[in-house]
From TrEMBL, chains A, B:
Residues 141-363 form the Peptidase M24 domain. It comes from Gemmata obscuriglobus. The keyword RNA-binding does not apply. Residues 7-134 form the Creatinase N-terminal domain. PROSITE patterns: PROLINE_PEPTIDASE. Transmembrane segments: none annotated. Belongs to the peptidase M24B family. SUPFAM superfamilies: Creatinase/aminopeptidase (SSF55920), Creatinase/prolidase N-terminal domain (SSF53092). This is Aminopeptidase P family protein. InterPro entries: Creatin/AminoP/Spt16_N, Creatinase/aminopeptidase-like, Creatinase_N, Pept_M24, Peptidase_M24B, Peptidase_M24B_aminopep-P_CS.
Length: 383, 383
């Protein structure tokens, strides 16, 4: 039995347990997950006796290529995809049909209720997303490929970056290299932050040049028509280290090597805590404990725990953020086959930030890094 | 009075006319339109006595910079943005609050109803989108800038493209050049189609090289942190014209020049029909009439009207597709200040396609092209 069939069977179990005899999947990413179709603007309908992909003429050929065994309705120009889907639901005799509560808009649901007044629509939230949290081997391979391509693009970037390049130049260059390495595009707009700008976890690129700082934070990933990767490296930079360029905290001794070592120790503590059955929040706590225990003779007031201002990680797959959540308020429990980021970071205003982010497969007895880039502190060898 | 204030006053009129004393704007693009804030994940609340931007710590600095006069709530990590917004709504005493029906998800609305059980939430559909259809002068200038940058990037692309470049190579190169010309990124993934692949209006890039066809269709635009442009040019290519490479329809005389002339005539007919007060569908019809009347001695069976398989155009602005719709089933009426694409095209399977798309400002007595690239048939001068 193939993976698509397994996914549909699992969804079928959800419907049965909720007394539903139909389901209308409207989120493109979930349509892809259940059918293999990689286009958009199309719906997947589970009906009492069969299933249907509802699409339009733009995607006719693609549907045939990607889903040869799937019944499909290619709507004409005289109706919307929602109207075509409602027609199919009406014909099918379905009485209680699930919809994706966190995806469908209020307007779409109101239109459906008018188009199919005899059907009861029921909000089913996160059912497909919960299935997607545990990857099958084919998905793991696709994520591994997305990691490889991102890493190859990052190496091209490192080999070509120049002191005069601005954050914006570097974002554009990395985009080009990740594509050149084989990606459709980056998985999200890369975050590239020079010097103290690394203190903003979601920095948007400015005209600050690489040469204006003593460290560089790069958060990036690849999208390989579907599966995504998500990696962060923070590098010492040979620039911006002259006494006149060092910021105040660097001058009083906030030291890249010492702080990097703590972030890496936090990541290692998290990796050591990962195994099936463990609560996601306990993995987050394992990293947080390392920051809480870190002490520095030179700057005794620095409490690193206060500077790790986001969750430890998240699932990746067809989306760049998906289940499970690895953070203090998460109720998720880790399972073998999940693929998550582990990304501890510290952000010190006026000094900068360090984040180390890797992609991790949870295995039957622990975890395995999918990322292969070194996690040791490294110096940018910029030309 | 500044533009933001005008936009908010217009929204205030909508609320008054619907007996609402509040509005929660959740779509990022509409938050940007009403506040000038260009980040995401933030909401804008119109309350009985004031307005609030609800955001989180990631955007604290950006909110201060971009919206210095706007009251803002920066939520803590212990709640979601929706929870913080609901809290503000509860405190404000609002009784009937509008939400964006075509934007808010069913799940978000259900959560709001639980968090603010005394408030009646009312679906208001397309109100802000209708305002956005008519641009103020500042917006027109931003779209004009997005056109300029896209055109500059396209010229760089034309100056550097090579016979061996694949559609994928060309998409990646154009992305880089549009950024190099000053854009944050392209306005949408560019469509670049070689030879007969131009027959697919939404072709995704393949490994087909430029040298494999006698024409090249390029549909692209620029995103300048907000406002967008959308342009298509179809060029003769010096490659793929040898007898062995010509496709069957090219061999029997389907001639690029003659067909291009009809598409250009259709576009000119549409441009001549545009003025305030005209129905959008009549402009679509003006273009369609040119196709219906086109006759060719050599291939009398070719009915071009059957090969123009999409609407004539759409509004552009903060989104790449927005109001008004210019198509046969549109109820929209043109107004001065609207900015729209006019993009007639023909798609002949096995032969290819021709589309000419320009960005057009509707003026008090007609229209003005924002695009400055020549619309005359041109040959790619590839190195």
């Amino acid at each position: 039995m193939n993976y698509l069939q397994q996914r549909r069977n699992a969804l079928g179990q959800t419907l049965k347990s909720r007394d539903l005899d139909g389901f209308l999947v409207t989120a493109a990413v979930n349509v892809t997950y259940l059918t293999g179709f990689t286009g958009d603007s199309s719906y997947y309908a589970v009906l009492p006796k069969n299933t249907l992909l509802v699409s339009d003429t733009r995607f006719e050929e693609q549907v045939r290529e990607e889903c040869p065994d799937q019944d499909a309705v290619i709507r004409g120009h005289n109706k919307t995809t929602l109207e075509a889907a409602a027609e199919a639901l009406n014909k099918s005799g379905a009485k209680a049909v699930g919809v994706e509560g966190s995806r469908i808009t209020l307007g779409e649901l109101e239109a459906l209720r008018q188009l199919a007044p005899k059907i009861t629509f029921v909000s089913v939230d996160g059912a497909i997303e919960a299935q997607r949290a545990v990857k099958d081997p084919g998905e793991v391979e696709k994520i591994r490929d997305a990691v490889k391509v991102a890493e190859r693009g990052f190496k091209m970037f490192l080999a070509t970056v120049r002191e005069a390049d601005t954050e914006k130049d570097m974002v554009d260059a990395l985009e080009g290299y990740v594509r050149r390495a084989g990606a459709k595009c980056t998985a999200f707009p890369p975050i590239i932050a020079v010097g103290e700008r690394g203190a903003l976890p979601h920095a948007t690129p400015t005209n600050k040049p690489l040469g204006d700082g003593a460290k560089l934070l790069v958060d990036f990933g690849a999208d390989l028509v579907g599966y995504k990767s998500d990696i962060t490296r923070t590098l010492r930079s040979p620039f911006g280290t002259s006494p006149s360029r060092r910021n105040k905290l660097e001058r009083i001794g906030y030291d890249f090597e010492k702080l990097y070592a703590v972030v890496l120790a936090a990541q290692n503590a998290a990796l050591a805590a990962i195994r099936p059955g463990v609560k996601a929040k306990d993995v987050d706590a394992a990293a947080r404990k390392v920051f809480a225990n870190a002490r520095f003779d030179k700057y005794p007031d620095l409490k690193l725990a206060d500077h790790f201002t986001h969750g430890l990680g998240h699932g990746i797959g067809l989306e760049i953020h998906e289940a499970p959540k690895i953070r203090a308020n998460s109720e998720d429990v880790l399972e073998s086959g999940m693929v998550v980021t582990i990304e501890p970071g510290i952000y010190i205003p006026g000094w900068g930030g360090i984040r180390i982010e890797d992609d991790v497969l949870i295995t039957h007895d622990g975890c395995k890094l999918l990322t292969t880039l070194s996690r040791e502190p490294a110096t940018l060898a910029a030309g």
